[in-house]
User: Fold this.
Amino acid sequence: MRKSWIRPLITLVAAALGVTAAGVAPAFAAPDTPLRVMPLGDSITWGVGSSTGNGYRAPLWDKLAADGHPLDFVGTLRGGSMSDPDNQGHSGYRIDQIAALADASLTRYRPNVVTLHIGTNDLNRSYQVSTATARLKSLVGQITAAAPDATVLVASLVVSTSATEEQYRAAYNQAIPQIVSEAQAAGRRVAYVDMSSLTTADLADALHPNDAGYQKMADAFHRGVQAADSAGWLRNPAPSPARVQSGIAGKCLDVNGAGTADGTAVQTWSCGDGANQFWSAYTDGTLRSMGKCLDAAGWGTANGTKVQIWSCHGGANQVWEPYNGGYRNPASGRCLDVPGSSTADGTQLHLWDCNGGSNQKWTTLTAG
Assistant:
C-alpha cells in the first residue's frame, strides 16, 4: 500500500467513529461533491419501524444536503415519504441474497457512496452463522469490484431484543473492523461505521429502530461521509451507465443471461432495459458491466478471439479505445465485431480486423 494512503485511512476510520487521532473534529474538504448514494441492505435500510417509512435515509439526506452536497439516492426500490425514496433495502434478505442482486444494481446506478447495513436476518434466523462474516467480507469485495470509485460505509449491526440474534451479534460486529482494514489495505475506500449508540430504547420492535434510532443511524452514516470527505475519498459520480447499440438495427451489447461468472459470453441481443445491457466506460480504457470487464478471451489477439466478461485486472486484453465508430482493442489492433453481421440474438462477439462495417459500429444510448 502506498504510504500516502496511510494517514487518510487512519483519519477516515477514526472519523467514522466520531474521533480523530488528535481528538478533534476533522476538516471536511469537499462539501459540495455531488453524491449518488445507494442505501443497501435489508428491512432496516428500507425503513421498517419508522413512522414515515424513510428509516435513516431521510435524516441522512437532510444532513448531506445541509453540508452542500447535490444528492441523488439510487436503487431499484422506492419507499417512504421523502422526496427521493430510491434505495436498495430488501426486507427479509440475508447477505447472500443481497450479493445475488448487487452486481446488477451497482452496474445500473454506479453510486459513489454505498451505505451498507446487512446481516440481521442471517443471525436472527441462525442461517450459517459460522460463515456470516466470510459472506460479509465477500460482499464488500463484490461491491468494491463492481463500483471501484465508490466509498463503502460498512455499519455494525444495531442492537436488538431478539435472543437469537443477540447471541451472535457481538462476535459478528467485532469482525467488521478487520474486514474493513483488509479492504483498506488493498486500496479500497471502505470505512467502518459504528452503530453502538443505539440502545433497546431506540427500537420499534425486536429488530427495527424507531424514529430516534434511525436518527442515530443517520448521524453515524453522516459522520462516515464527512470522514470520507476529510480523507479525500469522495469522487464526482461517474457518468451514468448506458446501453451500447450495435450498428445492426435493434441489437445491443449484452452479457449473456445477466451472468456474473468469469467467462460469461458477451453477445448481441434485442435492446431492452436489463442491467446486463448497461455499460460504463472507465478512464483506464475498460468497459464494465455486471461488475466485470469486457475481455478478449485468453489474452487472444487473433481474428475470431471470443469476447467475454472477466474480473478486471488491468490487462491489455481489457482495454478498448474508440475507433471509427466502434471499439478497438489496441493490444491486438482488432475491433469488437458481430460475426458475419448476424442478426440472431445470442451471437457472441469476437475480435476481427477493423473494416468499418455496420457490425463493428457501436453507439452509446442514454440510460433509462
Remarks:
- Residues 1-29 have pLDDT under 50 and may be disordered.
- The longest strand covers residues 35-41.
